Amino acid sequence: MAYLAAVPQPIALFPQFIAAQPETLILKEHVVSLTGDSFSIKLANGTAVLQVEGKVMSISGRKKVSDMHGNHLFDILKERLHIHATYVAKSPTGEKLLEVKSGFKLVGSKATATFTSTSGKQETLSMKGNFLDTSADIIDETQNGLVVARINRKVLSGKDLLFGQQTYAVQVAPGVDFALIAALCICLDEKNNEK
């Protein structure tokens, strides 16, 4: 698997999570979770970096994302009253950090994320997946289609079939915030769970 090229300038919501080198994240949905859809997010070397806790009684499917010190970074939730599925990441104070809208594509899936990077630049990242949604590229539309992350979803293991558990391996380019990329993956998972 070839590494992704470094981005010319950082793409981030959380500077403390900017990848200094090519990184691979492993997002693993918990098989049995009393709180709803919950994930553990680790680097490929096994270092835990983020924890995602689903709220079981939430109409919006709220997910709380924290670092490994318990600091609440943001929530992911579905916004209602949109033609296309729309997810947002909000700060603990309720400020909208990121919006992800799914689009219509005849084959595969497509979603667009918009946000203001820590540099103050307006960013647009597109997720374009294959027919079975087993993989997707996350592309920086402001950098002539530069691939900044690549998602590979492991499918059809015994646990996937029996419990509906998902595991994602995500390559992240140097200079890209992996907490941001994890948020996009969770939005993609939520969208896929609605099918």
TrEMBL record:
Gene3D superfamilies recorded: LURP1-related
Question: What InterPro entries is this protein classified in?
Answer: LOR (IPR007612), LOR_sf (IPR038595), Tubby-like_C (IPR025659)
What SUPFAM superfamilies is this protein classified in?
Tubby C-terminal domain-like (SSF54518)
Family of this protein: Belongs to the LOR family.
Tell me what this protein is called: DUF567-domain-containing protein
Task: Give the organism the record lists.
Answer: Ophiobolus disseminans
Q: What is the lineage of its organism?
A: Eukaryota, Fungi, Dikarya, Ascomycota, Pezizomycotina
